[in-house]
């Protein structure tokens, strides 16, 4: 021991180092654990997230009397509710590679409800939702829903890397779709900017928040959040989704 060194100070210094080391390890474990927990249970959009241990979301939260329906089963045994943003690229992927086929393949067997959940990161998400709801007021929601997604690249993207933010360009596209599906275009344009349509979208968003939605697409099967699990591509997601539908139908 060097001369004049306080043995108590030396001992307490070693103890402090040990304590600090332990504290760092504990914090690291907590942080890593928190990240893993978030990745397992957090909503990342794309149908992931939720938590199979949580109780189902109440039916009245997921569907209102005026909610838009793509296909309806007489017995309402299985209800699928999707919260979507029309400009969301993941929603477009889900539509083009899964839900469009689900709508056809399970027609008459499931009730498929769609709700609006436009995200701030998508500059035309609200605008497209208003177009869909304006079409719904003339009984043509389903047709506009398909037109928006079938022509997604025409209005939603500016180029291969950027989303479109040109509302005038999108409006021209939406009016073209309105004409193609047989809407009164003048009424369509008026309804798009009406408080009634905006209130409908706002109610959808509020219900989505109540259901725990934080990203799109978020899909519920009989109130339970669909989780893609270990699926690595859309073909596997589609397989997992159909498996859950078939299980619910078999009950």
TrEMBL record:
- Report domain Thioredoxin positions: 48-250
The organism's place on the tree of life at top rank = Bacteria
Pfam families xref list: Thioredoxin_4
**Membrane-spanning residues where?**
18-38
Keywords, in A-Z order: Disulfide bond, Membrane, Oxidoreductase, Redox-active center, Signal, Transmembrane, Transmembrane helix
A GO molecular-function descriptor: oxidoreductase activity
Spell out the family assignment given in the record's similarity comment: Belongs to the thioredoxin family. DsbA subfamily.
Protein name according to UniProt = Thioredoxin
* Organism listed in the record: Saccharopolyspora terrae
């Amino acid at each position: 021991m060097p001369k004049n060194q306080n043995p108590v100070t030396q001992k307490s210094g070693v103890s402090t180092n040990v304590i600090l080391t332990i504290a760092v390890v504990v914090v690291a474990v907590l942080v890593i654990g928190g990240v893993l927990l978030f990745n397992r249970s957090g909503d990342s959009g794309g149908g992931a997230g939720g938590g199979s241990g949580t109780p189902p979301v109440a039916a009245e939260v997921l569907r209102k009397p005026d909610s838009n329906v793509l296909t309806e089963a007489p017995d309402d045994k299985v209800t699928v509710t999707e919260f979507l943003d029309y400009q969301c690229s993941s929603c477009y992927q889900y539509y083009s590679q899964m839900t469009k086929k689900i709508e056809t393949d399970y027609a008459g067997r499931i009730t498929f409800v769609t709700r609006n959940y436009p995200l701030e990161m998508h500059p035309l998400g609200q605008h497209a939702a208003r177009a869909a709801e304006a079409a719904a007021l003339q009984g043509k929601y389903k047709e506009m829903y398909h037109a928006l997604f079938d022509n997604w690249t025409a209005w939603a993207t500016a180029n291969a890397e950027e989303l479109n933010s040109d509302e005038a360009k999108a409006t021209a596209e939406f009016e073209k779709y309105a004409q193609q599906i047989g809407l009164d275009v003048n009424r369509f344009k008026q309804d798009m900017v009406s408080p009634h349509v905006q209130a409908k979208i706002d109610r959808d968003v509020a219900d989505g928040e109540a259901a725990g939605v934080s990203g799109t697409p978020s899909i519920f099967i009989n109130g339970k959040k669909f989780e893609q699990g270990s699926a690595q591509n859309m073909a596997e997601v589609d397989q997992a989704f159909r498996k859950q539908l078939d299980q619910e139908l078999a009950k």
